[in-house]
Amino acid sequence: MLAYTIRRLFTGVVMLIVMSFITFALFFASPVDVGRFACGKNCTPAQIEQVNRALGYDDSFVTQWGKFAKGVVAGRQFPDDPALRESAPQLVSDCPAPCLGYSTRRGDTVVNLIKDTLPVSFSLAIAAFVIWMIGGILFGVIAALRKGTFIDRGLVGLSLVGYALPTFFVGLLLYKFVAIDWGWVPIPKYQTIADGGLGGWLTGLLLPAVTLAIFFMAAYVRMTRSYVIESFGEDYVRTARAKGLSERTVTFKHALRAALTPIVTMAGLDLAGLLGGAIITEQVFNYPGLGKLAVLANSDYDLPTLVGIVLLLAAFVILANIVVDLLYAVIDPRVRLD
Length: 338
Fold this sequence. Notes:
Blueprint: H1 2-28, H2 34-39, H3 45-55, H4 61-74, E1 76-78, H5 82-87, E2 93-95, E3 102-103, E4 108-109, H6 110-145, H7 150-164, H8 167-181, H9 193-232, H10 235-242, H11 247-275, H12 279-284, H13 290-299, H14 303-331
Antiparallel strand pairs: 1-2, 3-4
């Protein structure tokens, strides 16, 4: 188990390095003049050239990526040109490791920008994850146990409707009626636990988390139902019933435990994706998370910020895959990690 974990971690680091190289190539090896966007629309050619030299954009792509990789490990300073740092020490900005770049559009390091927005996306993702996992697995098991009945058809039908509705429509619907017209909950506004307490924090997350959970829960209801029904036909389930075990034990200890393996895979990847920012939902509810930061960085052509967000999301996905692989042996005893 330990050797397998070390191998998977090493593979994950290699994948992250390759991902950083590809991402950096896609953003910075294009024919677009990056310095022009970093400087602004009204900059003169001389000013654009100065920005390119200050940020190292005039170097070759390989040199730029090498400095970026070194900054992640050891940190770096901006401006990138040593001569400019000596001539204008008041403009020097330290970027300690892990340095993902410096955003001239926002006058701060990418890591600091991510630190300010990540707690919002993390809180929203965890809240939505808890809701959709509990609801999706619970209603999926109920549908499987009532296969062919009105309850089964109703749950599957509702899940199809929930999956078909776009998140921005559900979010606006909940915002308009639940929060504004009916006043069942306060107008959604993100608050930290330190500012609003646990109750204020949960209240602010409720509607956006439900918006995300409805979409994901719909998929998990159908998937859980399918895998549980499939597990009921396995030999070990029939043997458990032949031994006289209760239906609850057969369902939750044998059938559901085997069905959880593909569900965990999907859940890990979905959660990792959400940790990178729920772009549409954060825009609808005006939450200052990673998704909103990504939209602003894209509109401003803030390449360092975009690269940092993409690499962070890639790290979440790679880490989620490693955690899911390790959980297989815990959930399904038939799986052995050698």
